[in-house]
Amino acid sequence: MAGLGNVHAQRGQVHEAMLDAFEHRNSGGFSHANDATTFVVYWHYVYSARVTSTRTRSLDAAIDLLGTEGLRALTHVRVDERAGLPKGSTSNHFRTREALLLGVVDWIATRELPPVGAAFSPASAAELVDSLCGLLDFTTVANRTLTTARLVLFMEASHDAALREALSRGRTAMTSSVVPALARLGAHDPVAAAEAIAACFEGLILHRIARHDTSDPRRTFELLVNSVIPA
């Protein structure tokens, strides 16, 4: 019966998109009222936008649940409720709980990469330290729920190979994105420097989230940056 409900939910989305397309056509939105090709293209655009929006809302709601209530709170039904979506919407995109978890991992990486990229465009070692301090504050204050969700998934990955692989891909993408900046700053081994900074950053995040440690990280970052970038 659950599968039948998912089919009905998906059909509902298709039907709503078709109604939008018909309305657009009848209001003169197309150059030719009988232009079937244009109608289909427009319907596909509307439907794709709806599906993408639903998927994103599901993933954001899943992150919110993980980050505020933990792994046990993550169910398809709870995600639909948190996202304000019709029942069955999340399972249309993620048929199993494992698929939902993997989708959340990829979405977290997608959301985290832009601020990391912005932080790693410094002109000097001193600017890099400033950027790291700012990024840590953003990660553990403004973005605290997402960061907590990622840590929850880290623990789950200890006994879930597929989740572990997905998290590893995200971390590799993160460290790879900062290697060019470290090379420009003159790091002798930019790859090793990126790994060291990532490990330090992850440790500080863990203590801020789990222990609510609010100590100033500047001295720690200064010691690390000065050890990998020559003066």
What features would you describe in this structure?
It is elongated and about 60 Å long. It is about 80% helix and about 0% strand. The chain contains ten helices and no strands. The chain is mostly helical.
SSE topology:
Elements (H helix, E strand, L loop, with lengths): L1 H25 L9 H34 L6 H8 L5 H5 L3 H23 L5 H18 L1 H13 L4 H24 L5 H21 L7 H11 L3
Helix pairs in contact: 1-2, 2-3, 2-5, 2-7, 5-8, 6-7, 6-9, 6-10, 8-9, 9-10
Features:
mainly alpha; elongated; 231 residues
Short description:
The chain is mostly helical and 231 residues long. The chain is 79% helix and 0% strand.
Mean of pLDDT: 83
What is the SS-derived class? Answer: mainly alpha
Which blocks of ≥5 consecutive residues have pLDDT under 50?
Answer: 1-19, 30-49
Written as H for each helix and E for each strand, in order along the chain, the element string is: HHHHHHHHHH
Tally of individual helices: 10
- Approximate strand percentage: under 5%
State Rg. 22 Å
Q: What's the total number of strands?
A: 0
Give the CA-based shape.
elongated
Q: What gap, in angstroms, lies between the N and C termini?
A: 66 Å
Reported for the largest beta sheet, the result is: none
Helix content percent band: over 70%
